[in-house]
Design brief:
8-stranded parallel β-sheet; 21 strands; about 40% helix; Lyase, Ornithine Decarboxylase, Chain A, domain 1
Amino acid sequence: MSEWSPERSAELYQVDAWSASFFSVSANGTLQVHPRRNGDEKIDVPQLVEELSRRGLRHPILIRFSDILATRIETLANCFAEAIRVQEYPARWRGVYPIKVNQQAHVVEEIVEYGAPFGVGLEAGSKPELLIALALLETPDALLICNGYKDRAYIETALLAQRLGRTPVIVIDRFSEIDIVIKVSSALGIKPHVGLRARLSTVGAGRWIESSGEHSKFGLSADELVRAVDRLRAADMLDCIELLHFHIGSQITSIRAHKDALREAMRIYVGLHNLGATSLHLLDVGGGLGVDYVGAGTDDPSSMNYTEQEYANDVVFAAQQACDEAGIAPPDIITESGRAMVAHHSMLVFDVIGVNRDQSPGKLENCVEDDHAVLHSMREAVEEIAPDNLSERYHDLVHGRDEAASLFSLGYLDLHGRAKSERLFHAGCLRIGGILEQMGESVEEFEDLGKLLTDTYFGNFSLFQSLPDSWAVTQVFPIMPIHRLEERPTRRAVIVDLTCDSDGRIDHFIGVGEDRPTIDLHAWNGQPYYVGIFLVGAYQEILGDLHNLFGDTDAVHVRLDPERGYAVEHLVEGDAISDVLSYVEYDRRALSEKVRRTLEKALREGRISIEDSARLRKNYDEGLAGYTYLGGND
């Protein structure tokens, strides 16, 4: 067996496939991050985690690399700049960031900062998001795209934002919104920038395919688009129509879906021009630009079969071709590629707090004369295991195990016998597993065998709070240890979280060609063992819930620093227990007082000593102020 190496760990966890060159494995067996991708700057992740711990941050911890965020924005801008240059496209790219993808204040502030050189604006899908965008977006000429359900206050706020030098575009998602825009605009004396959202018949590709097509939640049908033009013409506001918008879903996995949608959208764009909406000069292609979470380059739901450059090329080509054929000026192109902007910049690091594995010794034990015949048969099956009969012997063992369970239920086998049947079965599984490993084979019929020999690693995190898409839509995220990568990982494992919910487990991991039900990890020896989950910057934080009242984790923003390697820009403390209790209407003082009164009663009745009463009161109050996750044990 060849010696293990950091290079083999990088290959095992397919770092080069999913990391977009932002991560690598060092010669010392630690994970490194390269925030500027092609630069020489790098940060040793285990060292960073250790230093953050010494600063007082707790585990689990969310680490946001600000320079990765900047690099992703630059990458998207450069892809469109290249497409525009090559195709000699006469208009420009004007990207916007949908706040809903990650609404954390420091993230949005950094996007505005890093996006300013490229004119990146913001997209608001609700009234709260509009208020965020109104306050933060100060980039000259950047667009503020106003989507979602709108009432009079929403529209009035958007229109008045023009007085502050903002450029809000009110997108008509429902036909009934047109009359509100007309009335509010007339009352304020402010001419609006109006967009029309088209409901395409083209459907997307991937998990969110149902959000697109003719039955999608938002958008105007062809009939409604024609009537919208007529209604605005009647109000002498036809020249207010400046933008056409469409959206075919998030994480589009196939470039064909983008091509088909662009072709249909450009037909609508030209059609609106022909109806007299000649002020139309903006094309908002919405979101949908995917992220290859597994690095497979396929149309698997967690992957994508195209690159950012191919996407940009196709958008520019479709707009130019349709407009050239119609003899009209091509539009500025707007993208709402939030996932592609922010997914890569965040990683979650958690510590393993325990491992549960089958404690059977795996040693083949003898049967005595009084043992039931089924136990003798199982032992013979184990003894006869050989490379040429693995399937047959495995089926014999499964049959024996099940028969022993039935005999036990009927009273023909005692607990001793039932335990011996389990030990024999486990010994046989270990022997079969060892032979399969030596042969380098993975036979489909032995899938259950793999599960039987799998360890359960307990992680100090909440799947529902930090990785909800893993539970809700079986999204595959890159997961790997951040250290000990010079060692061979010898344990096959699944990962479970701290919640008491059986769904709080991860049993789908990146694999060659397809997802794997297990991940290879190092044997846990009670020493700190840290695992990272990557590409969690999009949607995961804001979709997280308080299952079992596990709250937000500690979070930190890290930027490269030319002198010290890196600098901690922002430190955001996670929720205390009292915080999450307040979310569900518990008052900290009232709870503490109830416990105090109960303690006083127990003291009077002699059921607790004064010292133990003081200790419990201290633990209770400290607990209310403490982190919702687990700390270390002395």
